[in-house]
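Hey team,

Filing this mostly as a record. A colleague (T.K.) asked me to run one chain through the structure pipeline before their review meeting, and I want the input and output archived in the tracker in case anyone asks later how it was produced. No errors, nothing strange. Just documentation.

Input sequence:
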Amino acid sequence: MATTSPGASKPRRIRGLDAEQRRAQRREQILDAALELFATRGYLNTPIELLCQTAFVSTKSFYEVFASREECALELFEDTSARFRTQLASALAVSAEDENAARRLLTTFIALLAEDPRRASITFGLAGTDFPGFERVRQSNRRWAADAVEALWIRNGKAGDLSRRAIAVVGGIFDVIGRWLTDTDLTGTGDAAKLVDDLSAFYAAVTDSLD
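Output structure:
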């Protein structure tokens, strides 16, 4: 059986963390700083130096984790999108057979956005950033939502070319929500209930028009 030589070097640990754990910790610090700064200052107005100052890491440490500011922003966007999809999927699993499932999903989504306005800003702000990676995540989010809408229609016995209509419905809903976020102070009460009413009515009208 192989044994470790008494003189063999051991991985260096700082404050109880090895190199990989320290790298993961720095990643979280940078992403936390990016969430705050990108949401409040905007992506283009947040240089890497400010990200590092806010995250309490060196520029060298930043580049050990991310190749660029764009890569950092893209990971934040992907992480935020994944969180929303997971929570919406849970809501859908609970109410999929309910005729009011779409309204419940809309209510859940709006509540998630209002819960942390910074993530709302990331979801609808970074989506408009002119980089291919951001557009890919944006389209992935809309495709996921369209698939969920199409599945609900199929459960309700709808037929026809549902895919394109689902994409159109989701596009309209997302655009309305994006405009609402621009015009609404999410630190206050806002008019979330009215927004859900309007979007639910739109969804119901399209659903009723299907074969």
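Quick notes for T.K.: The radius of gyration is 22 Å. The chain has nine helices and no strands.
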